[in-house]
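Entry 12.
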Amino acid sequence: MFNKILIANRGEIACRVIKTARKMGITTVAIYSDADKQAMHVQMADEAVHIGPAPVNQSYIVIDKVMAAIKASGAQAVHPGYGFLSENAKFAEALEAAGVAFVGPPKGAIEKMGDKITSKKIAMEAGVSTVPGYMGLIGDAEEAVKISKEIGYPVMLKASAGGGGKGMRIAWNDEEAREGYQSSKNEAANSFGDDRIFIEKFVTQPRHIEIQVLCDAHGNGVYLGERECSIQRRNQKVVEEAPSPFLDEATRKAMREQGVALAQAVGYTSAGTVEFIVDGAKNFYFLEMNTRLQVEHPVTELITGVDLVEQMIRVANGEKLGFSQKDVKLTGWAIENRLYAEDPYRGFLPSIGRLTRYRPPAEVASGPLLTNGKWQGQAPEGEAAVRNDTGVYEGGEISMYYDPMIAKLCTWAPTRAEAIERMRVALDSFELEGIGHNLPFLSAVMDHPKFISGDMTTAFIAEEYPDGFVGVTLPEGELRRVAAAAAAMHRVAEIRRARVSGRMDNHERKVGSEWNVNVDGLSCDVTIAADPKGATVTFDDGVALRVSGAWTPGDTLADMTVENAPLVLKVGKISGGFRIRTRGADLKVRVRTPRQAELARLMPEKLPPDTSKMLLCPMPGLVVKINVAVGDEVQDGQALCTIEAMKMENILRAERKGVVAKINASAGDSLAVDEVIMEFE
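Predicted 3D structure (tokens):
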């Protein structure tokens, strides 16, 4: 076995690889850029080597710099993680020439399957059903328009060397094909150093389902079930689960066997993923093969007990797989939510800054257990697991230079319904402050009827949130539960305030039992009867709710029980009450005496400032292009400017017809969120 392994990556995946290497007794080496000097993966590794400035094209994807780090550290093997150099055949070739093991597939397999155009041709030759498209290289935007017309709109423009949603655009007409071609090329060049683009038919109402395969160099190959990855935004997966709630056993078996057959046809070794698009009739089409470890691999590990990173390292060391297909047993259900540094209330635009608070829920081990390919048993009935793969920490910074992923929160349980419920509680328990993030949106998805039923496609977000995410409106029954909990918490805080020492004589403060609770427009008069085990909160219509739980004034998390059902609240203090966040809702809860409530109803409402005639920067980013000039008349939907953030280009468009009165920014400027870019008459 290797004594020392270098991880040619950063963030959560680097930390993930380090954990397994440490378990196996292997010394680890991290590489880092200027921006990652204090990063978690650097702190976790046994050694660390600096490789250059923050931009990836000056550090993490520069093969010569990574090779120099390998030589300096004396590492015997390299795990590339995902992204960066993980599917770069030149990197695998350089490692081979240096006598360093690549923890991944052979160079030839990367070349054949890592390139989307070549892989589709091989799949077609192997008799695998593929999506109609144009596999040749495209010279310019006009050629892209011509090809798109021939295929028939809608089409998908994709980077040949792409992944993670980078370099992808959907075009529904000529103008979008022309515009998407250039944006895809730019993103592909910046992210992968390869600007080749191809076009394929965009299948409407599709599901994205992928097969995890694992092969060794001795001719053995197994499939480890499938993953449902249909909930995506901008072709970036957001929620994954294993197994798929959609497939029947016949389709599942055919997809799995086809995935392994395709991998073995190209001499594949290591862990890989064969991705399919599946329509409503369960017809499936090969999309691509990712010749690396997938971001969403934890859900497969949770239902199989297989440590995929360990198996990759063992295969790279020349070992045979320690188990066969008949040994693979799928147990229970696993769900992964990707926590991103993006603001769902601003169209999911990237958010950067410092994590002033980062408190994930406690990790709980459970599920099937496997060591060195041998099953050691599985979780007792009814247990559930929580896993959080991350590469950040409280006080750390989310940089503009890299992918906005903060963490991958996973849950496992014996059934899908239990795994979903465990995820709801885990999301409510996840404390994160300092930046915009998608926790509220993930909570909303977990409660969405389509997700709960398993009836979702890759168009889920576009269809269910066509106007963007504006938060969650809780039903009245849930608001009452929140109101009851807030009233009980406020009473506890009032008792503490009444006991403050140093008060004036003859000014004793008494805590009453009657209160008014106002939450999200629902105003309730309540009476609280407390006892040592909790409190009974009775509403003015006679409904009584029993509240219990441990909460102390100042705690930012309240783990409550209301009517024998759990209620986890993130709590912040505001004047006269609390800021409560739960199940995706962000609520201001005011708890007042009846007289205070009476007076509060007489107060005028403060209105926000009018910004309707301004174009505000929706995220911190770099101005790439200004498309208009002062005096120009713009139309609804017209492109006004392009902002780059988190390696993605974002085109800002006019919301209505107007005339440009003033432009406050120019190409090359770095802007903060809500900075005024231009003003209109």
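Annotation: The longest helix spans residues 476-498. The CA atoms of residues 360 and 430 lie 5 Å apart.
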